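User: Could you go from structure to sequence for me? I need the amino acid at each position, not a summary. Structure tokens:
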């Protein structure tokens, strides 16, 4: 299995799709998330919680975490959560608010939660917190749910 570090719930299968296989399929080619050092702690339908350690390469010119690093980790959690039902979903619109800074060595937790899923769109809130449970950033994402599946049972990825 991939770097799934934690738990899946009893609802790890939907419409014949295994959410862990969905995550494994996505992570297999997600080199950017690997570079970020993301570890997925919990994954289930409509939900993803992951963490990563802030590295020197993530710093901006002021010695604090670059907004792009925060955005990227939030986008990864969003992508994992919105694809968890097995239907290939892509971002339509996202926004992020930077609340507090982070520094090298901080361990940040990113939690993506489904708000609503319809036939063609889904909506998520993604919160990044530090080890003191202080909010670092708030991300809101809207995804378009395509007609394709992340993987076909018995086959590989469809993207």
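Assistant: Here is the amino acid at each position, in order:
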């Amino acid at each position: 299995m991939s770097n799934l570090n934690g738990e899946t719930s009893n609802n790890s299968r939907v419409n014949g799709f295994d959410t862990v296989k969905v995550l494994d399929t996505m992570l297999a080619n997600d080199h950017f998330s690997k570079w970020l050092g993301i570890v997925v702690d919990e994954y289930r339908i409509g939900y993803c919680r992951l963490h990563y350690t802030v590295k020197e390469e993530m710093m901006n010119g002021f010695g604090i975490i670059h907004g792009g690093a925060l955005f990227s980790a939030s986008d990864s959690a969003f992508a994992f959560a919105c694809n968890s039902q097995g239907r290939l979903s892509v971002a339509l619109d996202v926004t992020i608010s930077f609340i507090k800074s982070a520094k090298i060595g901080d361990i940040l937790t990113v939690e993506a939660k489904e708000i609503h899923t319809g036939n063609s769109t889904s909506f998520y809130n993604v919160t990044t917190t530090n080890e003191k449970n202080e909010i670092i950033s708030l991300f809101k994402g809207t995804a378009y749910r395509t007609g394709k599946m992340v993987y076909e049972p018995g086959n590989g990825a469809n993207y």
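One structural detail worth keeping in mind: The CA atoms of residues 8 and 43 lie 5 Å apart.
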